Amino acid sequence: MKKIETSASAVLSEALGAVMFGVYIGIQIYFAMTYDVRIGKVLMNLIALALIYMGLSVLSFYPERVNGLPKEICSGKIRSYTVWMVRLVKLIFTGGILFASICDALGYEIEKGYHLVVAVLILLAVIVCEARIIRILRNNRK
């Protein structure tokens, strides 16, 4: 059985992600009722976010699958950085979708580059964590 990380920061990040997901569901329901949006569109939005969120949650339990490393190598700091990378991506993605949904519900138009900013933030989190993992792997080879 895998050890489940229960540090305060891990619990806080998971709780924050779950709260953001719940608020997104509420805003989608509000948006559908207020603006007469078809229920199929709302369900597709919710299903898409739920699948991505669950997929990232599964990856945080099996970090060796992210980098394709054997379980023996994917331990210690490598495992820690991989789990934090997945959690950061999950928080940035969920927060980005939530912010766009809030702006839609309030009637504000988001600038066209907003989604590019979210993608760059996700890419930056991945690059920083992967660079640290690669540095550890290179140091272990020597």
Question: What overall geometry do the principal axes of the alpha carbons give?
Answer: elongated
The SSE order reads HHHHH
* Number of helical stretches of at least 4 residues: 5
Count of β-strands: 0
Residue windows where pLDDT falls under 50 for at least 5 positions: none
Kindly report the average pLDDT value: 86
Termini gap: 31 Å
- Percent helix, as a range, is over 70%
Whole-angstrom Rg? 18 Å
Q: Report the sheet-strand fraction.
A: under 5%
Which structural class do you get from the secondary structure elements? mainly alpha
Sheet of most strands: none
Structure, explained:
With 142 residues, this protein is mainly α. Helix content is 80%, strand content 0%. α1 runs parallel beside α4 (77-106), α2 (39-61) packs antiparallel against α4 (77-106) and α4 (77-106) packs antiparallel against α5 (114-141). The chain starts with 7 loop residues before the first helix and ends with a helix. The model has no long low-confidence stretch (mean pLDDT 86).
Summarize this entry quickly.
17% of the residues are buried. Helices cover 80% and strands 0% of the residues.
Which SSEs are present, and which pair or pack?
Elements: H1 8-35, H2 39-61, H3 64-67, H4 77-106, H5 114-141
Helix pairs in contact: 1-2, 1-4, 2-4, 4-5
Question: Which descriptors apply to this entry?
Answer:
142 residues, single chain, mainly alpha
